[in-house]
């Protein structure tokens, strides 16, 4: 097989043209994201790049996921998945950005340059997996990706509509020759359900834990797939799925619930009486829990920080019980609530590190531990176990010198590992892990919430003429430019007890995010208001000034 690079250009010129007026875009926190109307040429070129990436990685399978996750319906996006199921290597993000931003006329030369720089032999096979979310424009964009792969004579496997974490899983299973599981939807569902059933044991209820969950599917692929799970779960877990047929992420889903601190629309009336609820996002890689107090009507959120503490605490107990020595650590971002960090370090005695925003950074850091638990506050995260950890636990499960209880605990840990989608944050897998721990402890959400009290916090958006005038360092916590801005933020923060605030340009939207937390809601709101206005003044704010949020 020989590849004529001219075909890449000819194909693009004929079917996937880039407009002259198209502005440059960047491979951001989670790939390219934009209005769906602007993405056809981006998709085509990402198909081309995925084929090149596969060849650069000894013809291993590469994933291309078409989704804009929690963004509104009119947006779409694309992200690439590397051979081990992780996000695309950062060096290649730059290649992706450059490839997307050249003109059609320069496309052939740009592809040739990547081939030369990366020593890619286009006679080698290229293997690419393609998946998409439920947005109505995803199938059309998927055609563009497939055409890009075919222009480079790659082999395409189309998985159709899948969650982002499912596609990561398929890539990993394939490149491990099945060691991680069977790379099909049945293989994925079967692995999770088998582990979940075993961990649940005989009884579906225990202590304060009730076998009823209300699940907001964000009108996306997460609801579609959950409905499939529900059939197979039988009564092991009663899940009532809602928001399965409307506009994606519209007044629902994990991002809406976390950002607005409010129940989603569509929540069944009965759930308001203290029912255990969760929301996933548009591509089902995030999950948050919540309940409404039946007596007071107050809404309580259990976010990604909370999920991290629940899972890490449970794992720590199991590890101690089975008497193995494994180093465990937790990874957060600057958006983690200060109270959660304090609880993990001082009460749970688990080391915590803080990385830049974006799961690729957290995942990378979590690899430093035998058992690395990482979660963003918004509910995106997972647990990864080193080969050493798996081997140690496997040995303990059959070690006759240990007590029977220790062996059983080790066996339980192995099922817990099987229930985890280690490749990336996975709303469904994470939800089943949370359900497993709550069931084991006999907890309702109030019991879970009692472990620590969140500091009141605010997350706000500020619109600037160019968000990139703000640059940050130290895991997003310190502003480098414009000069002097950080000093001014520090002066404001110092006025508030337990105050903390930072700003950074978003990697997924054309905005700057301001985060603030303090001892009271009123103080968090005031702190955020002052910092947002400071940023608006010093960094070129556009549109109306930031207003004060409700307290
Ligand atoms: C504050 C926040 O939640 N930021 C999100 C958001 O990134 P931004 O770069 O902040 O837009 O989307 C990312 C992708 O889903 C996610 O990883 C990240 O945590
Ligand atoms: Mg998502």
Automatic annotation (TrEMBL):
CDD domains, sorted: PGM3
Principal EC category: isomerase
Pathway entry: Nucleotide-sugar biosynthesis; UDP-N-acetyl-alpha-D-glucosamine biosynthesis; N-acetyl-alpha-D-glucosamine 1-phosphate from alpha-D-glucosamine 6-phosphate (route I): step 2/2
MF (Gene Ontology): magnesium ion binding; phosphoacetylglucosamine mutase activity
Chain sites annotated for binding Mg(2+): 69, 281, 283, 285
Domain Alpha-D-phosphohexomutase C-terminal: 471-531
BP GO annotations: carbohydrate metabolic process; UDP-N-acetylglucosamine biosynthetic process
Family assignment from sequence similarity: Belongs to the phosphohexose mutase family.
Job of this protein: Catalyzes the conversion of GlcNAc-6-P into GlcNAc-1-P during the synthesis of uridine diphosphate/UDP-GlcNAc, a sugar nucleotide critical to multiple glycosylation pathways including protein N- and O-glycosylation.
Protein name per UniProt: Phosphoacetylglucosamine mutase
Organism: Anopheles dirus
Lineage, opening ranks: Eukaryota, Metazoa, Ecdysozoa, Arthropoda, Hexapoda
